[in-house]
Amino acid sequence: MPPRVSIIIPFYNCAYVDQAIVSALSQTYPDIEIIVVDDGSTRHQERITPYMPWIHYLGKANGGTASALNHGIRQATGDYIAWLSSDDRFYPHKLTAQIAELSLKNALVGFTNYEVVDEHGRVMHAPNFPTDAGNTLHFTTSSKLYTYMLQYNPINGCTVVMHKELFRRYGLFDETFKYTQDLEMWLRLAAAGVQMEFLNEKLTQYRFHPAMGSRNHQQAAEQEVAVLRARYNPVVAARIASMETEK
């Protein structure tokens, strides 16, 4: 039996949520569950209604992306967790390709390349994104990836598939970080020396649009990043040094 994958879709007033759900339902992978976590929305819930027979719908008071993800993870029955933002989309073979890669590399967490699309779903040219060809050279080993992570966040959260065991071992998303809960998790895993496997295939469409939170809360996000760098960079740097010594 293949391992089950739980797709968690945090939802807050997002007009694209139906497209995210359709992309999850279109997965070729044989064993999935789809959990939509409504984080206190006041708009666009009607876009979810047609898909209720095929999803698990969880409602909660507004608490932010990390709290919505954690609520979904706690209810998930899958062996692996995949996060899908309500404004993004998976390609149909996304989970099939990624679970095969994790199995091949004996890894518990992995991320992939991705496309950037606009509010209409049109593919955009996005120079200098972390997963450009020149940058992906840094993702071939853990020490190279960790070194890159000391300055940048190359991991798009919606490309990640992560075994539930890692949440049990290292904890859920930190809800005190409202905008950078993803970076906090990746740095936490790097500090622990967890292997994060990169698959250089564009398996997710990341939507860049005027209403997205990362554009509207940039200053607050930058303040959180500064806190994370102070907390984790020395620990990650020490981890890199120990890995280089062991070679």
Automatic annotation (TrEMBL):
Record-annotated Glycosyltransferase 2-like domain positions: 6-159
Keywords: Transferase
Keyword Hydrolase: no
SUPFAM superfamilies: Nucleotide-diphospho-sugar transferases
Gene3D superfamilies linked: Spore Coat Polysaccharide Biosynthesis Protein SpsA, Chain A
Pfam families the record matches: Glycos_transf_2
Example of a GO MF term: hexosyltransferase activity
Family the UniProt entry places it in: Belongs to the glycosyltransferase 2 family.
Name of this protein: Glycosyltransferase
Originating organism: Paenibacillus lutrae
Classification lineage: Bacteria, Bacillati, Bacillota, Bacilli, Bacillales
